[in-house]
Design goal:
GO molecular function: DNA binding; DNA-binding transcription factor activity; lipid binding
Largest sheet: 2 strands, antiparallel
Shape: rod-shaped
Subcellular location: Nucleus
Number of helices: 6
CATH superfamily of the largest domain: Homeodomain-like
CATH class of the largest domain: Mainly Alpha
Low-confidence stretches: 1-6, 10-18
InterPro entries: HD, HD-Zip_III, Homeodomain-like_sf, START_lipid-bd_dom
Pfam families: Homeodomain, START
Domain Homeobox: 15-79
Order of helices and strands: HHHHHEEH
């Protein structure tokens, strides 16, 4: 298929072979344009008829008329191609603008997401650090409470209280050892008080292991 530019070069070459370049008057161009609008590619007979019907074209060689129509078709193709390329260029320009705007929007969105990710990561690290600190503090407090509890003195540190605790402990031990109830009996002649000394009354025939071993 012959391109537009090559067709125009061929037409110019044919025009050169036909003779000297012809400068058309406005009236001649108008007459040729009317025929071109009706038939862009007239035949040889139609061109000869045109010369006969238009006296203003009588001094133009038929080959020159043929070249004029060839050049006119080339210019029309060039005009249409230029218009098409301009339309494509406008569409591409508009598309490029939209893509640039979308690219800017996506870049801003990515920057915002990166900022949020960094913020949430920092918050998570702070929460983890705070949780570790709270656990350590709780362990220290619990250990301190246990140590305080273990070092807490008896409720009653008086001599009478200590004697009472000793009696309760001994009673519990003897009751488990002898298998019978143990009663404290005040010694004769001793007044009740913190300095008094009591004796233990244990029944005979006890079933406890210690009682059997002692022959009670």
């Amino acid at each position: 298929m012959m391109s537009v530019s090559s067709g125009c070069r061929d037409a110019n070459k044919m025009g050169g072979d036909a003779g000297k370049y012809v400068r058309y008057t406005p009236e001649q161009v108008e007459a040729l344009e009317r025929v071109y609008n009706e038939c862009p590619k007239p035949s040889s007979l139609r061109r000869q008829q045109l010369i006969r019907e238009c006296p203003i074209l009588s001094n133009i060689d038929p080959k020159q008329i043929k070249v004029w129509f060839q050049n006119r078709r080339c210019r029309e193709k060039q005009r249409k191609e230029s218009a098409r390329l301009q339309t494509v260029n406008r569409k591409l320009t508009a598309m490029n603008k939209l893509l640039m705007e979308e690219n800017d929007r996506l870049q801003k969105q990515v920057a915002h997401l990166v900022y949020e990710n960094s913020y949430f990561r920092q918050q998570t690290q702070n929460a983890a650090t705070l949780a570790t600190t709270d656990t350590s503090c709780e362990s220290v407090v619990t250990s301190g409470q246990q140590q305080t509890t273990s070092q807490r003195p008896p409720k009653d540190a008086s001599p009478a209280g200590l004697v009472s605790i000793a009696e309760e402990t001994l009673t519990e031990f003897l009751s488990k050892a002898t298998g019978t109830a143990v009663e404290w009996i005040q010694m004769p002649g001793m007044k009740p008080g913190p300095d008094s000394i009591g004796i233990i009354a244990i029944s005979h025939g006890c079933s406890g292991v210690a009682a059997r071993a002692c022959g009670l």
